[in-house]
Amino acid sequence: MSDSEKGKSTLGPSPLQIIVKGGTTSSAHDKERAKQLHAAELGRAHQDKQMSAAAKGVQMTDKGFVAAHIQSLRLMDGGSPRVVFYYLNRDKSVRQECVGEIAMMPDGDELFTLVCPKCLERGEPHGSAQVMVKKSHRKWELDTRKQGSIVLLTDPFGQPFQVKICGTVHCYEPLRCSNVGCTWAVKIYDSRVEEI
Length: 196
Description:
Elements: H1 3-6, H2 27-56, E1 59-61, E2 64-66, E3 82-88, E4 94-104, E5 110-115, H3 117-121, E6 130-134, E7 140-143, E8 150-154, E9 160-164, E10 168-176, E11 185-189, E12 192-195
Parallel strand pairs: 3-12
Antiparallel strand pairs: 1-2, 3-4, 4-5, 5-6, 7-10, 8-9, 10-11, 11-12
């Protein structure tokens, strides 16, 4: 066996990465992560420009007459099925409420998204701190007994607002954040998110 063959696996190249808890990530992972963060920043900057132009509407600029408006209100549509998740402290008191949506994938699979507070505390961008829970991957159901109920919440600026919920979520398996180095794991019962 030559020296070049000693380090090769007989199974061929493997896409799997092994991460040691408390260890470091590979440079390839760090580069890919930096690329994702840069793309997210560019996307947010572009969206900010679009929203700014739409807010100004029809106007005259140094380049001529410009008409700007938002073509799709999908992300701002209040008609999407919504749930309110209650993040609990260790003593079962509510620490925070979060509004979530139940979404239907093109293949018919349903999903909801949770935000990992540990990742946000570590400085992860909001887009990278989300845990997507597909029905095909984890057993969960939407309990519609509270469908149509109005939940009163307060936004980050202290203003009250209402959310009409489509029900509550029950998840029968533990959920874990998939980000490297994150240990956040929860169970959900009646839309109450409790760390385990």
